[in-house]
Amino acid sequence: MAKITFIASDGTTYNVEAENGSTVMENAIRNAVPGIEAECGGACACATCHVYVDEAWTDVVGEPEAMEEDMLDFAYDVRPNSRLSCQIKVRDALDGLVVRVPERQG
Q1: Residue among 54, 57, 106, 61 at smallest CA distance from 87
Q2: In 3D, which of 94, 95, 101, 99 has the Cα closest to residue 38?
């Protein structure tokens, strides 16, 4: 289990207990985190689960794969720390992860 903190665009914080092997997106949906739409259900076929990984966590989370980078082209306000939450697998090393939800999804 890992604790993930989602920070909505209005500053509201959502603390979630996430099971290893699940994705950050799945946990956002299960816990009704606003702003994560996940229209494709986690297939990396849209950009509606876009998040900003907190700078302190970018190295631990890692870089996006090529397919994810391509999908990020459709996201709103992409930044160097942008990721699709459906592509971030929860593991022990992510305990304490902080992600921010953009103002809107692509």
Answers
A1: 61
A2: 101
pLDDT tens digit string along 1-40? 999 999 999 999 999 999 999 999 999 999 999 999 999 9
> Residue 71's closest CA among 52, 87, 55, 54?
87
| Residue 50 CA to its chain's centroid (Å) | 6
Residue 9: which domain range?
Answer: 2-100
Domain contains 10: yes
Which residue matches tokens 């297939």?
A: 43
Dist CA 17 CA 47 (whole Å): 24
Which pTM does this prediction carry? 0.95
Could you tell me how many helices (H) and strands (E) the chain has, helices first? Answer: 3, 5
